[in-house]
Design a protein that fits this description.
single chain; about 260 residues; mainly alpha; 9 helices; CAAX amino terminal protease self-immunity; protease; membrane; hydrolase; endopeptidase activity
Length: about 260
């Protein structure tokens, strides 16, 4: 039997030669999920957040939510600057970008910002629909944000930006991912691990917003909505990435604070 020839076959006339390059860069959908957009969205917000706090005198009371909890948890024996969590988050995002080769084209940024605004408006619409059936929500803070018929001030806007950044970093990038990883180590099916991680981190997210409330002010309607909002942010993070999740959270908080609520 004649052995097969090792001579490469002759090219077919008119056929394109096979490409030796790897797969092309991801499109908009895949690019949004990488570290590049997370840097483009989060770093300018962090810079504005820290610069704004410094411009307003550096009052620690301007730091709310997770950022304030981190500062309160550090013992006085360790004089860590108030801006250390922002620097740590920025360094972590830069390290993620070094490890993540996916690129995000600058021309996609307006579309990404519009997506964040639309998703934030979608959650506000969900709240308005929820409020129709649960009057207990009326006049209550939403995710720690109280609506006002007046334009929001610089201090409130800074607090909302910081809350959006650090809550997404803590509950989505941190808790959700760690919960999912732990469940996968235990051989939980991927779909089930994802659902449990999203729901569980959202439950912790809702519980955290009730810490320090005065006795008797707890409302199940508010708690359930905050849990639903946490699930919403979780799936934005899972499907669209950290950058879109941060932008959506900040957009939602600012929309709630500037919405013309009835007095």
């Amino acid at each position: 039997m004649r052995p097969p020839s090792r001579t490469p076959p002759l090219p077919v006339p008119g056929a394109r030669p096979p490409s030796r390059r790897g797969p092309g860069p991801p499109g908009y959908w895949g690019g949004c999920r990488g570290a590049s957009l997370a840097l483009l969205v989060t770093l300018p917000m962090l810079a504005c957040y820290e610069a704004g706090i410094a411009a307003l005198g550096g009052d620690p009371a301007l730091r709310t939510g997770v950022d304030a909890w981190i500062g309160a948890a550090i013992p006085d024996a360790y004089p860590v600057p108030d801006w250390a969590p922002s620097v740590a988050l920025a360094v972590g995002l830069v390290a993620w970008r070094v490890a993540d080769p996916r690129r995000f084209r600058a021309r996609w940024l307006p579309a990404a910002l519009a997506e964040c605004l639309l998703l934030g408006a979608g959650l506000l619409g969900l709240y308005l629909a929820f409020d129709r059936h649960f009057p207990a929500l009326a006049g209550r803070p939403l995710l720690g944000v109280a609506g006002s018929p007046l334009p929001i001030g610089a201090a409130e806007a800074l607090s909302l930006v910081g809350a959006g950044i650090f809550e997404e970093a803590a509950f989505r990038l941190g808790l959700l991912w760690l919960t999912y990883a732990g469940l996968r180590i235990l051989h939980t099916p991927n779909a089930l691990a994802t659902a449990f991680a999203a729901s569980g981190s959202a439950l912790a997210f809702s519980m955290a917003h009730h810490v320090g409330e005065p006795p008797g002010s707890f409302s199940w309607a508010v708690f359930v909505f905050r849990w639903l909002a946490g699930v919403y942010f979780s799936w934005v993070f899972i499907l669209r990435g950290f950058g879109i999740a941060v932008g959506t959270h900040v957009a939602y908080d600012l929309l709630v604070a500037s919405y013309p609520w009835p007095e």
